[in-house]
Write a structure and sequence with these properties.
By secondary structure, the chain is an alpha/beta fold. The chain has two domains: about 180 residues, Class I glutamine amidotransferase (GATase) domain (Rossmann fold, 3-Layer(aba) Sandwich); about 120 residues, Arc Repressor Mutant, subunit A (Orthogonal Bundle), CATH 1.10.10.60. It is built from 16 helices and eleven strands. The strands form three sheets. A seven-stranded mixed beta sheet has the order 5-2-1-6-7-11-10, with helices on both faces. A two-stranded antiparallel sheet has the order 3-4. Strand 3 and strand 4 form a beta hairpin. Helix 1 packs parallel to helix 5 and helix 1 crosses helix 6. GO terms for molecular function: DNA-binding transcription factor activity; sequence-specific DNA binding. InterPro entries: Class_I_gatase-like, DJ-1/PfpI, Homeodomain-like_sf, HTH_AraC, HTH_AraC-typ_CS, INH-QAR. This is Transcriptional regulator GlxA family, contains an amidase domain and an AraC-type DNA-binding HTH domain. It comes from Pseudomonas rhodesiae. Pfam families: DJ-1_PfpI (PF01965), HTH_18 (PF12833).
Length: about 350
């Protein structure tokens, strides 16, 4: 692996940020250093004024510094959580805008993208946010394209939804920086069965997208989800909820911004992708299970939606899941002085780099 400058990352913690999202973002960086046997990434935490801050689960966190006293960073992530609207201050907005003027790469974790949008730093960009805030962001920031994807990398903006989605974003980011083999090895260390991509969407309960005002639409979508192998004719769906076909079309266009047939196709393709990546089911059988009349038709639809044919997707997934046994080299050290020093005591320290060397 060629030596590259260390990438420094600053995590700005806001009041009631989600601890699991922060951990999901930081741990892949730690493991990248450990497996490579060198310091690829360096990270710091900061609250705006440097004082301790509470996570959403009530755990108090003492940051490394205030934002003004923090070391210079290549990337700045805003870590949000609950009550995000009440944590955005004019001082924070001013500071973030200044970082953008310095051409810093900016990111948002969980609800952190709300803060970037509030500062006007996502205008003209696509971003991800936790699904609870999708509708609110779409309503509040007309110049921002809010995506239901788990994470979004759009030029100098890196945003993810909450929970474990930041791990997928960081694994993808590390793969871009240092190769997919390293990110796959990190995934194996975390017993993370599948690295999800930007094409993977959050599982968003429809009631959070529509509220409680569209029970018929929710009922139709539930029927669609339960009948992917044998799709129900749209006329029959409309009749089931006592609507005309035209009313059904208008309802989907108004609330889901697509036709019912397009929405149904998307559900089937997403299900097909899950089966393709997670099971050994043949593509021929998979097409039948997801309601396609023929394998060529399935392959055409899949390629148009995901950008790759299902055969290539299956091959890439198989290559990523080939497990390489790490080289074991236990090193006993005194009390570590840093995160990297601590990693040296792990059996897997440098194993990825040594494996690459042995493979030539």
């Amino acid at each position: 692996m060629n030596a590259r400058p260390v990438t420094s990352i600053l995590f700005v913690l806001l009041d009631r940020f989600t601890l699991i999202s922060l951990a999901s973002a930081v741990e892949p960086l730690r493991m990248a250093n450990q497996l490579s046997g060198q310091e690829l990434y360096r990270w710091y935490t900061a609250s705006f004024d440097g004082t301790p801050i509470w996570a959403s689960d009530g755990v108090p966190i003492t940051p490394d510094s205030s934002v003004d006293a923090a070391p210079s960073a290549d990337i700045i992530f805003v870590c949000g959580g609950t009550g995000i609207q009440n944590t955005v201050t004019p001082e924070l907005v001013k500071w973030l805008r200044a970082q953008a003027r310095y051409s810093k790469r900016l990111g948002g974790i969980c609800t952190g993208s709300w803060v970037l949008a509030r500062a006007g730093l996502l205008d003209g960009f696509e971003c991800s946010v936790h699904w609870e805030w999708l509708a609110a962001m779409q309503e509040a920031f007309a110049r921002v394209t809010v995506s239901p994807s788990l994470f979004t990398l759009d030029r100098g903006r890196l945003t993810s939804s909450g929970g474990t989605a930041p791990m997928d974003m960081m694994l993808h980011f590390i793969g871009l920086d240092h190769g997919h083999e390293l990110s796959a090895a990190i995934s194996d260390m975390f017993v993370y069965e599948r690295m999800r991509s930007e094409q993977d969407h959050q599982r968003i309960p429809l009631k959070h997208m529509l509220g409680t005002q569209q029970p018929k639409l929710q009922e139709i979508v539930t029927l669609m989800e339960a009948n992917l192998e044998e799709p129900i004719d749209l006329d029959h769906l409309a009749e089931y909820v006592q609507l005309s076909r035209r009313q059904l079309e208008r309802m989907f266009q108004k609330y889901l911004h697509c036709s019912p047939s397009r929405y149904y196709l998307r559900l089937r393709l997403i299900r097909a992708r899950q089966l393709l990546k997670q099971t050994p089911i043949s593509i021929v059988e998979l097409a039948v299970l997801c309601g396609f009349v023929s394998t060529p038709h399935f392959s055409k639809c899949y390629r148009e939606y995901f950008g790759v044919p299902p055969s290539d997707e299956r091959l890439a997934t198989h290559e990523r899941t080939v497990v390489q046994k790490p080289v074991i080299n236990v090193v006993r050290k005194p009390m570590p002085m840093s995160v990297l020093e601590q990693a040296r005591s792990e059996a897997t320290f440098g194993s990825f780099r040594r494996l690459k060397s042995s493979l030539g």
